[in-house]
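Record format v2
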Amino acid sequence: MSTTTLVEPLRTEPRVAAASRTPFAARALQIPLIRTLSSVGFGMSMLALILAYASFGSALPQVRGTIEMTEMQVFRHWLFAGLIGIFAFSLTLATVLRIRWRVVNAGVLTVHAGLLMLCFSAWWYFATKIEGDAVLLTPRVQISQASGALLPGGELAARVGEKWERTMPAFGGAVRVEVLRVQPRGLRNAAEATVRVQLGDAPPSEISLAVDAPAVPVSDRLKLSLADSGEVDRFFDNEVAALHYRRVGEEQLRWSALEGLPYFRERFLDDGSPPIRDRDGKEVASKRTRPTARLAGFELPTGWFEHWRMPLNVETTELPFDVTVTGYLPYIAGMRNGVAAGGEQLNPAAEIEIGLGDQKIREWLVAKDAKESLLGTAIPFEFRWIENEQEREALYAPLIGTDELSVEVRDAGVRKTYAIRSGETIKVEGTPYEMVIEQLSPAWPLITPGFEGATSPIAMVKVTNGQKTYSRTVVQRFPHLSQDIDEAGMRRKDGPYDPNLVLHYRSAARGWFLLTAGPKLAPMLASFSTDGKVERIPLKVGEQSPLHAGGLHLNFRLAQLIENSRSILEPVVEPLEHRRPTVGRPSASAIRLEIRGRGELAAWKESRWITFSNYPHVDPKPIVVRPPGDAQGYEFIYSRKPHSLEARLGADQLAVEFMPGRRSVERWRSEFLVQRAGDETIRRGMVQTNETFSVGRWTLFQSGAAQDHWSFTVLGVGNRNGIWMQVLGCTLISLGCLYAFYIKPILRRREQDAALALAGARVAAGASRNGARNGHAGAHA
Amino acid sequence: MNPEMTNMMNTSRLRGAMLPIALVTAFFCISAHAGAEPFDASRHAIKLDQQIDWSALRLVAVQDGGRYKTLDSFAREAFSGMHGSESLPGLSPLGSLCDWLFRRKEYLNSPVVRIKDKGLRVHFSSHMPDVARMRIVNTGYMTLLELVDAEVRSRMDELETNTMMKTAMNRAREAEFYAEAMERALRFVPAPDGDDTHPWYTPDELQANLSDALLQSAGLTRAKVGAPLPGISEAQALSIMGPWARLKIAWTSGDAAAAQSAVNDLAAALPKLAAPGVYPAESQRRAEAKYYAMGKFTWGYIIYALAALVSVWALVTGWRVPYVVAMLLALAAMGVHAYGLGLRWSILGRIPVANMFEAVVASAWGGVLIAILLEFVYRRRVFLVAASFVGFLSLILGAFVIPGQGTLTSIMGILDDVMLRIHTVLIILSYALIALAAVIAIVYLLGYYLVRSPQRSAEAGILVAVVGVVLWPVLTYWIYNSPVALDGSHPPRQNVRELASVLTVVTLILMAFARILPRAARFHALWTGGVLAFAYALIWLTPFGFAKGMALTMAIGGFAWALATLIGMALPNAARALADAPVREQVALAGASGAQFSDAAALRRQRPILAGGAPGDEAAAAALPVWLHHADWCHLIILNMVIVMLFVGIVLGAVWADYSWGRPWGWDPKEVFALNTWIIYAILLHMRFITKNRGLWTAWLSVAGALMMAFNWCFVNFFIVGLHSYA
């Protein structure tokens, strides 16, 4: 008898399985396709593919960036779902056809059943997954200026005992606000509030405030109001952007989802707009604008795999025009005023380029704009639009020193020009006038309405004429803004205090470049050196001209000159190396809308950039589009897709627990009121670090909070379909593994022992039979 | 000479070799800790420092970094941040602190500020004279005057906004802060209210509570120091400021007695200012001081290293004495490891698994414990080898590689949850088991190839080492001379990366044609191509810093492999007798009934229950040394635990994520690669059903799983942004 026969039942499982297949399994495995699909090798190959897909999709953000997919989108892509589906099918076949359904195999069967449940429930979960967030503003008392603008830091929580204090000289001391009483109403935790206000040394007064009511003035300069985020019944999707719009003046915002909007890369069509530049002035090129891949010179369509599209048509049937997204920038540093041709009236603008070595500045100067007509470089650069040569001659006249003051005393008919220095005293001969030059400033910031942000050289002169003593501020660039301050310290805004004296000031203290052009007048540049001398340089658009000033050798080019320009808002892109990877589309992106009129407006077309607003109702950054003949216009906000919360939330407070030293936070807690749909009862709700709250099918969790630790909290919102099936699947896998690893070997050992015992018994029986036979034979012998 | 005598001589020679190995190890360890030359500016303070008994002041509590620490810890951490070591050379941590606070201007021209990141060194020094530039680039040390140089400041401001430089700049800013304003972090004056989160005060802030007359006498004005701090009387302020001022005068004048008196008074006065229950307990402060003074016990790697060497010896020779010695050494190392860990746990008041240092050190200890227990049960020596290597690696990583090197830190709020104790422990313990399994796998592979094709095995190791050795200086050169280091605005060495991508593809294509080569040359061609393709891919796809680390790993790993193989080949027969014995001669056949069974069947019956239900390698093992077969089932014992523990850990992580982030799974890179690691082990398990050489497949896939785990733990943590960035 062969010894191997005895140990045959102890061989490995596949053989056992093969030997004990059911007729159905045996028949099925005759089919090559089923045999392949149900094989361990095929299953492992699928697992290896899933592993490779997951590794590339997760570890290589460059890949996700190129194909414009977030992590969530990569893993709910049909390709991944397909891989999981094939694996699950293979696993099912293997489990049914190749594994014998008996106790010893209960572990592997349980694991496989758990895996199948996990595959199915995960597919269900991710296919229906929605994630977003809602912001709750803590009810607050707001302190505003008379204009309505909020004072910087002028807010305090509407909670009893909260205090605010600020020293404000205009009120003769400290302004104090304290919340005395707060009255809730429905979901509004602070619908009304009573505050005590004290302005300087004045006696305190009590003021009642209500949400949704107009601000209450507490003086001619300050007013108070009560604000909150109202009843929050929506949250905003983390992945799908939306274009919100309404007629200007309307309350209700409508929206259209921007499915297919890119996420990570600059993608914009060439619509003839000026080039887009980054913060360093470098031109930014668009990445692919169509989902295609170039391979060996061929362009292969990849739209079957990639979801993004450009241009993207926006469904806005209620509007009298079509809206298309023609550009997307994921990371902008801000917006700036740019210039384009096609204005309806005279608005001269010059684009200049100044180079020093490798560095280049390229800027627009707008002659009629006080701020935009001057470039505040080390040597200022100004653009003026002149009507005739005489005007240019006057502007280009050399100075008699670094700073000069022209004086005209009208009654005496005296006109003189002096080279001046700070602290100098000038006696105007033949007149009683004596002037002390108190201050010369090369770049004085102007605050006069219409001139905000502009600068100009100014001279502050103290004037005495025997009858009056006053101070005059003489503004070089805008002489009409010069003002007098009389003996009483009153600023004379209505006209000069002393009209008899006319002063004009010019300065070349830092040098000065003055570009002039006019109707039918060729552009010309004057370079004023610090000693007042002038060099004139005739210019041609597009040509380089060397400049020498302040010891520097500059290259100057008048890139463009437009008479009828119009102002446009241009995005400035954040250079790649300064982008923070954690800040994605939500906070820093912008889209370009192309708006085309329909019907009567068919000839009308506009292209506008909009920056992202995280919440369209809280921090909107709208643009207003006015079709021809429509003064009211439409407001657009680029934000996120809203979802209904199926409940209404009212903000209460954000509470924070700190680590020792209060520099870092240990725990955030958001408290709110909640009223579920179809339920009149208002309940208290709370989420905090590591603790969620459920509202219908949504789970709320602590997602973000204000850095000041009180003013707002961000609640993450998400659904979780199939979660319990996932839990069950995972439990089965864990239990099955334990069984397969630690119970099955014991059962197998028992089987082995039983086989050995059986073998031993057979051997013994055989031996005794042989012995008996031999004994019998011996007896015979 | 008879064979027995030869064996005995070989044996004594081998035993004798253990002593020099131990001595060499000890020498390297001690020289690694050798001190640097003191600065000239410190000479004044060295003797004074030695004369002062700091024992009272070192235990004073300081509020810093979101926790309470001892003044000793504060000084060590501050100097680590500024100087790269816990004190100035020649001075104690507290001596360094006093000298820095009171005599900083003496150090203006001493290179005390360490810029850790080499790219920044180039940025900061490019405009400096050659001598200073070379010093800064090579050593990283800058003087205070160099640090405040306008050009350096301007470069810092410029680089601060550069995302790629963020981590490096944070480190440089920390060094700058401690160099210029260490006193602003010295918050050791308790706030007298009972709120233990209320910010404490610095001595400079406490000055505000002195009377105007005192301020005037100190040359200060009320306007300069601000309003008095609430709740602290002038007398209380004086009880602190008096000794503080005396300490300053005594320290600068070199008066040890006066300094000692001031130190003692200060140490006695500070705790009195705190409200009851706020000041940390003395036992806790003592424990912390001890923990730091003992170098966080990471020096236990020395004992682990010795244990590893001796246990390998025990494994190879099968001798009992080295086995017992190795076991004792491993137990001693584990004891030191446990003591350090326990002390850390006690100081922090929470399980120490909340940052990378803690996770590595704690999980390794858990892994070592499991391996030692398994060794006690099965006595197969391979567990002991694995335990020693894993313990050694974890502590050496903790001591020298992991950022922060074990500084005690407060825990992030989100981590302070019961799941930290369950999910994190399970995951990191499974990682430690993966590391144990990888060591066993490497031992298996070394043994397997030593038996099957020793010469090729040695050649393969040498090739990997050579490629690593060539790659390392090349990458170092590229990093130091990279355009990114000069203006921070260009992708580093884009042309080099493009070339590497082409070379990777070309090499892989050439490898595909390896079949046309003669059979004898095919192995060399494929192996060379594979190693080169890997090196090119590293340059192409990974950050240069990571590639440099991999090059070093290749050099050391390849060299170690080749050396181990060569030693194995050169071992005298006596030492290999047990190792080389084939299974047939080793198996004690189970023959209760006296029946004869095949070797495979008998081996199968000897297999431990814990090795699980997957098929064993008994059929293939008959031709291999029995210890390789044993190594395979030891490997399986660990792998089974890995599969269960890792899966349950991942699931519990999902449960935690569900109630913390509102979703159980977000395809975060950390989650994905933990799952990938588990998938590799699932594949490994199933490959045992369809391959013939199961031990070999298992070993290679185990190494792949360990690499995936290492990638997840290191690369994903440091280079990929995700929700688990703190893990």
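The radius of gyration of chain B is 30 Å.
Chain B touches chain A through 77 residues (CB under 8 Å).
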